[in-house]
Amino acid sequence: MLVHISITLSILGLVSSDQVCYGKYGCFSDASPFSRPFVPLPAPPSKVGTSFQLFTRSHPHLVSIDDSDVKKLKASTYDGKKRTFVIAHGYTESGSTPWVGHMRQALLQKDDVNVVITDWGPGADGMYWQATANTRLVGAQIAELVKFLNKQTGNTPSSFTVIGFSLGGHVAGYAGSRIKNTTGLKLGRISGLDPAGLYFVNEHVDVRLDPSDAEFVDVMHTDMDFAGTSTQSGHIDFYPNGGKNQPGCRDIADGPSNALKCDHVRAHDYFTESITSQCAMRAFPCASMHDFERGLCFDCVNNLCPSAGYNAVKSKGKAKGKYFLYTNRDEPFCVLHCRVTFKTGRKWYGGGTSTPVHIVLHGSTGSHSLIKFNARNIQKGSSESFVAPVTTDLGPLTSIDVRNRFYGVFPPWYLEKVVVEPAVGRQMYSGCFKAKIDGNGVVRKLQQGDQAC
Fold it and tell me: What is the pTM for the complete model shown?
């Protein structure tokens, strides 16, 4: 009851704000915009327990560095002439959480860089609201480390990329904001991997990750309806599968806990794969997932379609806003995209369908890809387009099998024609059907171009 009264008075401005100061890391106040109910002030550095672990190609094993010990830095293999990636984990995690190691290995495989893991495990444990508060201190600690490395090696903040998952996404934002405010310079890049939502959605930009925190900020949203933020937070915001429900994340056999967090952790899974993958993980500029899945945003000739994940930085200064893409349900997650257009007939015995439609695309490589469209309201005498995730490179397309998952007496769908357009290039394929489509399916050869049927 007393807590409730205190919070109420604080909201009304009748209780003065509190503040804590931790030496070179600065002072932290709960005054606006940080006057969030239940969120306290950051715990002392001794309780948050932040440490920094350095990994390089020449010494791929853990070496500890900090923001003040020159001898320790000189004894390490840190090279200020190379780019530096700093990884910040999320709530209830630590520097030894498996995904952190996987990402570190991928980064070192990709390029000869410095990788620093920020382990704030003690401060990320316990009550969520305290961990939320602690992110402010950890961000300041990363900023001080960056400034120390700049002073000792002559590099600049622009050579640093901070990758943060969940609460770590906002840690990255605080680090970038502090560097900007204390040096007038900016981090080169921040990648926010499904930044945490609770206590951050629609908050003031000082409270959350935002585009001003680095020269380039890219954000991947995978669990907006639960653990992640729905607030657009970067120069580019990516929304795999709409940003909420990820394929392969509804398998209760993996256990309720894994199923619950699966959407959230897909963000760092997608990013890690993108580091070394040859697949572009192409994303499409669009206003909504509905418009994307209906093929209304499929122009990568007149519009830039950046790569989600590691290679997003290649679109720095060129792309901006919201971008959508599909992924596979299992590794490898990256898929190719095609737009499939069904042209239905006007025959009296049926023209459209509202039931699931399955297609199988066959290519010249001998491979095929099964694509399952959920129940679609395809009207009679119309052309309806849908974006299809293709799981493998099929080469030039050769044929298509279309099935209507209808099990009634009279098949309701009369299909005139199908047009298939891969996202890459201007190639188009078409097949004339002029057939009723039922559960047994109809196969037609595909020809290049938009043939008349």
Answer: 0.93
